[in-house]
């Protein structure tokens, strides 16, 4: 894979080609693949500046996605070559924010804003190394972390509510042994597609999806995804632990 670094150390451009296995039956990219591209491009950028996974492993540090805000402006067909530009746009005490643009030729077809939290070996949030703002070419900034509001999930027996019970599958897990952040978007779209008019909403453009990750889902965990319509053009989503209804993630989809 060729990486094109811009002159600005905050950003990098990484090329991808939409593979057959990354596509839907309609011959377009699965939405969650955009999150996978953004995640991978972020690591390519970090590695290019000398902060690869070994650097983090030696210090007992790791990044977790805390929230993502995704706008899809145009569908991307199987086999299309895209450029993924990732840029660090802000730091605060334990958080970093990246903006990722996915382009086909000169056209930006999707935009993601991702909030990452830095954790230590105990899994607790920890301060970002003081040199990072300088290395990534940006002053420390205060930004409002992405939050998904709304109340708890309604009972699945209510009209207009779609609920699905299942178990975390081995292929949902990443090297940190929990469900990868992109998989939660698959869960969201699967639940919305079961809700009244939800399948049609997933075909509309532009559409905006937000996810806030509350706590990690682990291997073999029994979970429930719930989606329901709120207003004419918004669907809400909650991912819950089956055993205690504890919230794992919350999200929404707007068209």
Structure write-up:
The protein is 18% helix and 36% strand. By secondary structure, it is an alpha+beta fold. The protein has 2 domains: 132 residues, Hotdog Thioesterase (Thiol Ester Dehydrase, Chain A), CATH 3.10.129.10; 94 residues, Roll (Thiol Ester Dehydrase, Chain A). A hairpin with a 5-residue loop joins strand 1 and strand 2.
Sum up the structure in keywords.
alpha+beta; 11 strands; globular; Thiol Ester Dehydrase, Chain A; 11-stranded antiparallel sheet; 2 domains; 255 residues
**What proportion strand?**
35-45%
Please give the CATH class of the largest domain. Alpha Beta
The number of E-state strands comes to 11
* Helical content (DSSP H or I, runs of 4+): 10-25%
The CATH superfamily name of the largest domain is: Hotdog Thioesterase
Mean of the pLDDT scores?
93
Query: Helix- and strand-based class?
Result: alpha+beta
Number of discrete domains: 2
At the third CATH level, what is the topology name of the largest domain? Thiol Ester Dehydrase, Chain A
For the largest sheet, list the strands in their spatial order: 1-2-4-5-6-3-8-11-10-9-7
The radius of gyration over CA amounts to 18 Å
CATH architecture of the largest domain: Roll
Provide a count of the helices: 5
Shape: globular
Low-confidence stretches: none
How does the major sheet shape up? Answer: 11 strands, antiparallel
Give the termini separation.
34 Å
User: Which H/E pattern describes the elements?
Assistant: EEHHEEEEHEHHEEEE
């Amino acid at each position: 894979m060729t990486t094109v670094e811009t002159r600005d150390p905050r950003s990098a451009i990484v090329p991808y080609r939409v593979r057959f296995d990354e596509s839907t039956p309609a011959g377009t990219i699965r939405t969650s693949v955009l999150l996978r591209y953004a995640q991978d491009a972020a690591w390519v950028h970090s590695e290019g500046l000398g902060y690869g996974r070994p650097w983090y492993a030696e210090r007992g540090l790791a990044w977790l996605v805390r929230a993502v805000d995704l706008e899809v402006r145009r569908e991307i067909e199987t086999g299309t070559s895209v450029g993924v530009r990732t840029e660090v746009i802000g730091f605060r005490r334990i958080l970093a924010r990246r903006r990722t643009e996915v382009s086909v030729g000169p056209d930006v077809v999707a935009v993601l804003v991702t909030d990452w939290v830095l954790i230590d070996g105990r899994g607790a949030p920890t301060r970002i190394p003081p040199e990072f703002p300088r290395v990534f070419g940006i002053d420390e900034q205060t930004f409002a972390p992405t939050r998904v509001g709304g109340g708890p999930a309604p009972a699945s027996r209510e009209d207009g509510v779609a609920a699905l019970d299942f178990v975390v599958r081995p292929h949902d897990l990443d090297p940190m042994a929990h469900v990868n952040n992109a998989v939660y978007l698959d869960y969201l779209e699967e639940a919305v597609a079961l809700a009244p008019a939800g399948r049609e909403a997933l075909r509309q453009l532009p559409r905006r999806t937000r996810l806030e990750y509350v706590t990690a889902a682990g291997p073999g965990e029994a979970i429930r995804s719930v989606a329901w319509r709120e207003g004419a053009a918004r669907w809400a989503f909650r991912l819950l632990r089956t055993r205690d209804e504890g919230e794992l993630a919350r999200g929404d989809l707007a068209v």
